[in-house]
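Protocol step 4 of 5: obtain the predicted structure for the target chain.
Materials: sequence only (see below). No template structures provided, no constraints applied. The aim of this step is simply to have a reference model before the mutagenesis design in step 5. Sequence pasted as it appears in the construct record:
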Amino acid sequence: MNIAALSEPAFNLVPGTFLDPVAIGIVLGGTALTVVLRNRLADVGRALAALVTLWRRPFSADTQIAQIASLERIARRHGLFSLDRSVIADPDMAAAVEAAVDGAEPEQVTRLVNDRVAARAERHRAAIEVWTGAAEAAPAMGLIGTILGLVQMFASMQDPATIGAAMAVALLATLYGALVANLVAMPVASRLKRLARAEASERLRLAAPLAQLATLERARKRELAA
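Step 4 output (structure tokens):
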């Protein structure tokens, strides 16, 4: 009995066995083409740019709320118009403060914040749909690669040397499609969806304190008149 043979693993994974340029081209190229055809280029670019946010902490409005409190103290002391010189990094918050300085009613400021939150959520939804579409398209491209490989295999039955390559395309295309869908596209879409929900919920917290700013000028004038 060959002891060395028994000690060897019965199944060896050779990395090169699972690499097939044709199958990769069919799955990745077909998925990319499908995504481009189904979505606007701006949304595709936004979906790719969103990859850098995957491992960031969920958005928190605590920093913005603290800044609003600071702006409120300034407005109570120097008037609401003094906020016109304030540097506000967050664009949604800056738009709401500008509206308040221009004399918008609290209800208008609240509506502005809600509209901007909805618009931001719509942009996030478009990016999420790009990755969801990729998750749907990748297995279909894998199936197309499998069919092409089988057709090539049956067409070359008289040449045994080409059967192996055709069978590799047929099997690996299905594998690549499943991997792209379940290990890349769908996890990315799910992560972006959770981040978008968290950000929308946090940004809605800004509506009430920003609307409060719109009431300060009238209150300050009444105090000065008294």
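Step 4 remarks: The chain has a mean pLDDT of 88. Residues 106-155 form the longest helix (50 residues).
Proceed to step 5.
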